[in-house]
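User: Here's a structure from my thesis project, written as structure tokens. My advisor, Dr. K., wants to see whether a designed sequence matches the one we expressed. Can you design one independently, without my sequence as a hint?
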């Protein structure tokens, strides 16, 4: 692993950040050895798959743009920190535009405690240009108001680190298969703007 990379790991005891003399570049952050801008297929061995098998992974499109797609959660990776990974990619080149690491945690209070610890540790090691600590509120996908989420964000010049805790209302058919817990994602600024202005 390059000494330029900064690892984003969930478990606080193994929350390893490898510092560099460079400014905080979002492409220097990695999750499970994978960085933004990588070709997803180059990491096929991590997921116990061939390049061809990984190229056929199911993906979902966004409502108003198919420029980038979201892969299904991949659970075949061996990790002490994440139960699954998912990616937002260019469907033609398989270039990774966003990486999401997921960890199942049923208790929302336990999730938020870990979320805030990770947020504080990463902020201290890699001071952001801007930060936002969210509050626990109803998730917009679930109109019943019973699904809850809290989002913390670290904004850098060319991308964002987003840490989210979610407790889903599994009585709602729309979200019954969603997993309660923590998600850490990294994405380029360009991709963040695409999500905000084009995807929906």
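Assistant: Designed independently from the structure alone:
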């Amino acid at each position: 692993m390059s000494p330029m990379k900064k690892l984003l790991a969930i478990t606080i005891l193994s929350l390893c950040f490898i510092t560099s003399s460079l400014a905080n570049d979002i492409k220097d952050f990695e999750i499970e050895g994978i960085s933004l801008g990588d070709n997803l297929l180059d990491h096929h061995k991590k997921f116990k798959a061939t390049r061809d098998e990984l190229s056929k992974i199911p993906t979902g499109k966004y409502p108003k743009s198919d420029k980038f797609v979201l892969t299904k959660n991949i659970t075949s990776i061996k990790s002490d920190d994440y139960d699954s990974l998912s990616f937002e990619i260019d469907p033609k080149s398989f270039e990774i535009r966003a990486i999401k690491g997921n960890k199942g945690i049923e208790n929302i209070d336990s999730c938020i405690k870990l979320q805030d610890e990770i947020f504080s540790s990463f902020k201290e090691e890699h001071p952001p240009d801007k930060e936002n600590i969210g509050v626990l509120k109803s998730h917009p996908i679930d109109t019943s108001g019973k699904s809850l989420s809290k989002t913390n964000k670290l904004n850098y010049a060319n991308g964002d680190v987003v840490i989210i805790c979610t407790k889903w209302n599994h009585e709602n058919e729309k979200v019954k298969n969603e997993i309660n817990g923590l998600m850490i994602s990294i994405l380029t600024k360009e991709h963040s703007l695409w999500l905000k202005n084009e995807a929906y």
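When you compare it with your expressed construct, this may help: The helical segments are 51-55, 108-125, 189-199.
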